[in-house]
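JOB MANIFEST
job_type = single_chain_structure
chain_count = 1
residues = 722
[input]
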Amino acid sequence: MNEVIRWNDQYYILASSSLADGRTEVLKHGETFAVFDRYGDIHQVLSGPQGLYHEGTRFLSRFELSIWTQRLMMLSASVKNDNALFSVDLTNSDLMLERQRRIPRGTLHLSRTRFLWQGTWHERIRIQNYGTTKLPISITIGIDTDFADLFEARGRKRLRRGSRLKTIRSKTGLVFGYKGLDGTIRRTNVRCSPAPKQVMADGFKIETRIPPRAEMSWDITVSCEIKPRRSQVVLSYDRAQREAEGALREAKISDAHVYTSNEQFNHWLNRSLADLHMLLSETPQGLYPYAGVPWFSVPFGRDGIITALQMLWMNPTIARGVLGFLASTQATEVRPEQDAEVGKILHETRRGEMAALGEIPFGRYYGSVDATPLFIVLAGAYYERSGDREFLVTLWPHILRALDWIDQSGDPTGMGFTTYARRTAKGLANQGWKDSYDAVFHADGTAAEGPIALCEVQAYVYRAKRAAADLARILGDSDRADRLLKEADSLQERFERAFWCEKLGTYALALDGRRRPCRVRSSNAGHCLYGGIAEQERGRRTAHALLSEACFSGWGIRTIATSEARYNPMSYHNGSVWPHDNAIIAAGMGAYGFKQGAIKILTGIFDASLFIELHRLPELFCGFSRRPEESPTLYPTACSPQAWAAGSGFQLLQACLGLHIDGTRRIVSFDRPVLPPFLERVQLWNLSVGTARLDLVLDRHGDEVAVRVARRTGEVEVILTV
């Protein structure tokens, strides 16, 4: 595809550099995240991800440390396994100072440790002299900020910007300021303790003399302040670290834990769980998994729902927070400039100057066709997992409004399917999970014209209506329950007639506005198994097609097959491999009894994690075929960490185990569980079922898996179906 044409997508992320090179590190807490290199430095580039961001604005665009104007030498750098702390060890190169004084390399050890807490960057710099004489030390830290909106950092050009305020200098620090066109004043407050020797307009200079075998340290805080909100008290490094560690311990209490006989598999799941905790942010309604760093560190409806579904068996409190937040932001009026319609569930919400001014529609944007049925799916799944009837009662009006949207605004032309067509030119042209402008097309490569009915969306609606029927019956509305089941059955019949493509052996990607099928082999069809809408034999054929060489790269299922007109393994949605997409498909295959398909997908995705730094699965990777002894090819602007990529391993394992938890009846069941050859044992600790707790051990014996209860507190039954 011609690159100039691709740039017609106004939300295309420009890639002047690749996130796959440079080995950047990431920290996040709440509304704040930081991206920096492995030395701990931020280099000033406008179109690029490095920086300290808070509520959609870059508050720090430069933070570079040097000693005697030279960069130090790297010894090692790492982020703790729990993502709470970045640490780097550095040393000096061979240095020649004034008067021909020479300092051999390796004389000085300098360490930097860093974490984020409540909108503030906390850093401690320690330096130790391993020489035999007292040494003069001169450390320079270059600091600046551009107050760029996140979309500017992504490459979006603006005709006008706000004004920089005068930089304020004091003995201990600097305050940079910016008054945006939205009238909001944003400040970056940088402090150093003990006070530096000199505070310059663009940073600090620390000068001292350090005795042999001695150590000295300085603490630096960078606070992101937004007026007219009241500034928070900035804590000391040690107190902030204690509070951050305590909050993380508290957040992990509700988790189940997975231990296996394969240490590499354990590393993958442990990193994934740590990434999910880093991406979780507090909202007034509970925890919400922000989608991903750097470009999507905000609440996304679809991403939050899918992540909550992935993690539901391990920690249902995430689902409760997602449902509460999305119910509170459900559209209550028609607003075309936001693609909002009554009952529709949020696509995304952002803060920042451009969102506040309406330069982008994403302050609160509803251009997502699938978030609304998936909201109902999650509500049903959460109730079954938790038995939380009180919460269900509060959700029910929102579920009814979502159902009304599906039946009315979701099908404005009376096609009989849920469709989308944007109502604002600033919005997304495609509004399924593959939302690139070129992601929905016909067999000859021509773009489909709307309103468009995606195959997977009909599957989500089918599952949503069945879930809503169950909830209606629980709440005593049997008439509504019966009606919803009839509507689901009718939808299934229409779907099979309209979407099945006999020659392809799978379901069409979509129907266009003239009800013409997009006869394209796509991963979307695999979601039809997850939704349960596929007829059994057609489901089997769809699974077979997705596991063919044209669709399965060796690392996972591609978004579209290699035979398709728009296939490009380096595209965002037209040939790449997405872990969450594969996990949903595997869950569908498992539900239809195709467990070996789930095993194949789990194996490919796990193998990919072995080649990726920290075992951290990115948002996506390229769809090139797997080559012996080589790693998967990374996608240049993929977010990492990404919430639904991190959750994919847990959903894949659940699919293979056939694990289902019914909290209303206090039953944990395993339906024909299977395990791949590289897993002989899986232990599930602290599995919650209401107030009961379970520790389970699953052992593979050939093709069979045995389940043993290692610990049980409270009333809960364990059932194994073979």
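[summary]
The chain has 17 helices and 33 strands.
Residues 257 and 304 are 21 Å apart (CA to CA).
exit_status = 0
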